[in-house]
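JOB MANIFEST
job_type = single_chain_structure
chain_count = 1
residues = 675
[input]
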Amino acid sequence: MSGKHLLEIKNIQTCFKTDGKMVRAVDGVSMYLDRGEIIGIVGESGSGKSVTMMSTLQLISSPGKITGGEVYLDGNDKNMLEYGPQSEEMRQMRGGKISMIFQEPMTSLNPVLTIGYQIQENIMLHLKLSKEEAKERTIKMLKMVNIPDAEQRYHYYPQQFSGGMRQRIMIAMALSSEPDILVADEATTALDVTTQAQLLEMIRDIAKKTNTAVIIVTHNLGIVARFAERIYVMYSGSVVETTNTNELFADSEHPYTRALLRAIPRLDDPKDRILIPIEGLPPNPATRPDYCPFYDRCEYRMDKCKQCKKPALKELSPGHFSACLLTEEEKAAKAKEIAAKKIKEAPQAVVSEESCLDVRNVRKYFPVYKGIMRKKVGEVKAIEEITFQARKGETLGIVGESGCGKTTLARCIMRVYQPEEGEIIFNGTDIATFNDKQLKPYRPKISMIFQDPFSSLDPRQTAESVVGESLKLHHLVKTKEEYDARVDELFRIVGLDPALKNRVPHEFSGGQRQRIGIARALSSNPDMIICDEPISALDVSIQAQVINLLEELQAKLGLTYLFIAHDLAVVKHISDRILVMYLGRVVEIAECDELYENTLHPYTKALLAAVPVADPVVEASRDRVPIRGEVPSLTKRPSGCPFHDRCDHATERCKREVPQLKDVGGGHQVACFLY
């Protein structure tokens, strides 16, 4: 046993006490990690990925309890779980031998201490260096993770950095004590695609340089395809399949892994590929059955799956384990049946030539005030010279990094903000300068679906009153019977049982909450719906259900969508045309396939290259277009072309003049002097 693996986890079990009984959140998970290796742990929310890692480090607090299992570190024969959570040995292991980067950098950094102090403290504790040496090492670490002006920035507080920069500081802190193992727990989920790609490449380079092993915990299959060497797939508290990355994507054995791969949109997909969602929800750990936990959602299920105990992992070929009772022959026969099944065709929406929305030259500035007298000292130019059209029945995708003005644009169209100048022509009328009274008839015709289905619903309102509110507000129904019938109809349209309408939001799952949000958006009979990142907070399998629902509704009701997102694979799947924004300006607009096959703007090229494809073979053959630096702040916007300071093709002219959008043929518009 000793000297074999850097980290070995054997049969870990963790329970949480709820309503007086012990519920198993992690049910016998085993995995290993070798020096310098990068492994991935994937699965939906609630599959036990994070709890497994927390149990390894004994970070489970009451009412949780580790009830079994062993953890061996660095070939040592002593089980680390035998030491108490507060023991000296565990403290040496946490932060010293194993470092963890968490999902939300702002909650892991202390806002009242400078970042230099926080990293320095960590170094002094684990590496026992003097204050001066620790400071020197801190600055070296900040340079290693590409923080510009590290000497000055050493004295900054966390809130003086952007999200991507804060996550870099977390990585510098995690690596500062020279750990053997780095655990990245959904460390890049909340970040932009380009920032995510930069950070993961950086973690990989540093890991290879320092021979650190990395565990990437994520639900994004593209990330593990690009970065991991081996993968563990988790479902409902246990590992259902594990093997090396190439084999998992080329020849997955477990029905759950196969279903996951069919549910995700990929950048290299044909436009008309239908996403096949995994029906149903993962089982509640409190009522998890004794038989295979995936049985209820599995397309391959047979009677014997329900009669036998939960299957254990068995080796199918060297290093490839899967927890499924079916034999190869049975799976092959079932796979044939599934392939022969008629997939429900997605209905095609009819796009008319008529324009639904015509935005011309819209600008929105926000004033900046300073001092006690609140004197206006300048303006933040959030969006400038935005011009585009959306036809009836079409989906226009809007992409760009955080802070590029996507949501500000949406709010101007909704007329939450009044633009400084420009026209917003909706159904033939310019509503840009209307007052509240004039806007009243237009309000119900534009609705919005929000990013986070939890915070956009009132926790005290029942689902029925959330969905029915605008029916009353806009006088769309006359009697109580009409109201009830319409609410039930809206529930059915989005695939929810009307019997659930008296529940409050926290009694629904994330996917169901987003369906309530969609029903609310549909209740006022809108012509146009603005979808602001409507699926980024959802699980892979639920994303597919929501995307399919949106496409179906569009075809049935003739809706126009503005689809704002930063996941370009999803945007490609759902959009007819795509508009790319950068720092408050439109840099490129084109038909969907044209944009992906004939990308013109250097920024769009970098954006597309940053999106990982869930296939390691495709990943290995793609061109990398590196993108330098961070998105500049809107208050210090560069002169000339907004992208010139990060672009490899920039000339003197780019620094002086702002390129205008021009048509290069076939409706493909680009704002770049190269064309």
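[summary]
The mean pLDDT is 89.
The radius of gyration is 26 Å.
exit_status = 0
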